[in-house]
Amino acid sequence: MLKVKNVTKYYGDFKAVDNLSFEVNKGEIFGLLGINGAGKTTTFRMIMGLLTPNSGEITLNGQKIDYNLTDKIGFLTEERSLLTKLTVLEQIIFYGRLKGMNEKDIVQKLDYYLDKFEIKEYKNKKIKELSKGNQQKIQFISALINEPELLILDEPFAGLDPFNVQLFCQEIEQMAKKGSMIIFSSHRMEHVEQFCKKLVVLKNGKPVLQGNLKDIKHSYLKKNIFVRGEIDIEKIKKIEGVISITKQGDEYQIKIANVDIYKTVFDEIKKYPITKIVLEEPSLNEIFLDKVGEAYGQ
What we know:
The chain is of the alpha/beta class. 33% of the residues lie in helices and 30% in strands. It folds into two domains: 2-217, P-loop containing nucleotide triphosphate hydrolases (Rossmann fold), CATH 3.40.50.300; 221-280, 2-Layer Sandwich (Alpha-Beta Plaits). The chain has ten helices and 14 strands. It is globular.
């Protein structure tokens, strides 16, 4: 288990992380979210042992994280961290040796991943000769090469097309099935919803939303009603508790303040010729916007 307990980090007088606590169990994919400057990168660096908290503690399987444990951690950074003059083979051997692996095992695992990600022909190519998407694949392989117990993924899908995103998704899910603890951060909320059962959202270094995603969505008061058909928009807008109505394709999305409003809205809508009416929980993106006050990635 990774345990982050009451962690605070200052840079001078600036508080980058404010009393943050969370746990990630084996086989779990945990979401760590926040806009730029929210404290995610500082948190990652403290988990990696690159920064020391001013207060609180971080442990992996009950032990303080130091150089004796970093061999068990894999980290894919948002920024490219590849040595572009090296070949793919040289780069991965370098990273693997840093993790205490022998060269035979490194090459064997590299061949497996190159085949899986369909880039076998780039094994002896220099990093700088690869496209951004293929460089991202090599960076991903460098984070996986030691089969880490803890895997930190910061924007893992940057520069990838949908087909390759799916390949990454399959591998992330496979790592979790093998028991790896995974911390996942992405601007793409649909990916967070796909992977993460638990998450924490940071704003100014402080958690503003935390817990089981299913519980978070269920307890969030605002709901959405999706309607297909001809309705009197102006009349529905006047119902107390209706926040907004927008058209999405051939459907209307009606945002309501809480689930109690649904019956009143339904009683009005059923007067019209409709072919669909569905009450849904809000998306994680909607909840994020409400809690943080701005779009993720802006």
